[in-house]
Amino acid sequence: MANEATTIELHGSPAGNPIRFTCADAVGIEKGAVLWFYNPKTISGAALLNKPFAGIANSEKVASDGSTTIGVYTKGIFTMRADEAITAGQLVELSGNNIIRGLVGVANISGGCVLGKALETFAAGETKQVLIGGTF
User: Fold this and answer.
1) Which residues face 83 on adjacent strands?
2) pLDDT digits over 47-80, tens only?
3) Residue 68 phi, psi dihedral angles, 5° rounding
4) Which residue, 59, 116, 76, 110, is CA-closest to 93?
């Protein structure tokens, strides 16, 4: 994959408040991948529109390595790539694999799709800072 998030600063204790999620053994996940989750406490790295945000992969998961879990950061500041203009302070959601956009629609808030808040103003295609797991 490409456009993985880069850690700027981790928040909480322990740092980044990592949570261990279940994942498929056959799946490979890059460190910094933006992940979404489905029931029961299982993640996917195929980040698509209108999916509930889980966090950022804190390590690489090699496909078919025998592991069925991965640590996921849930609090911090990360650089992320936007596919459209986003205003500083605007809530953001997934727009594709490791790409974000400004939040679209109230239903995506109640659906758990809020990824975080833009800490800077983005132009389309720019990579800048986003707060995840903070106060929105």
Assistant:
1) none
2) 567 788 899 999 999 999 999 999 999 999 999 9
3) -125, 20
4) 116
d(CA 109, CA 54): 14
Task: Residue 51: name the closest of 42, 40, 38 by CA.
Answer: 38
Quick one: tokens of 13?
């204790």
Residues, the chain: 136
Distance in angstroms (rounded) separating the CA atoms of residues 95 and 120:
18
| pLDDT, tens digit (0-9, with 9 covering 90-100), for 24-54 | 999 999 999 999 888 778 888 765 677 888 9
What domains does the chain contain, in order, with CATH numbers? Answer: 6-73 (no CATH), 76-132 (2.40.340.10)
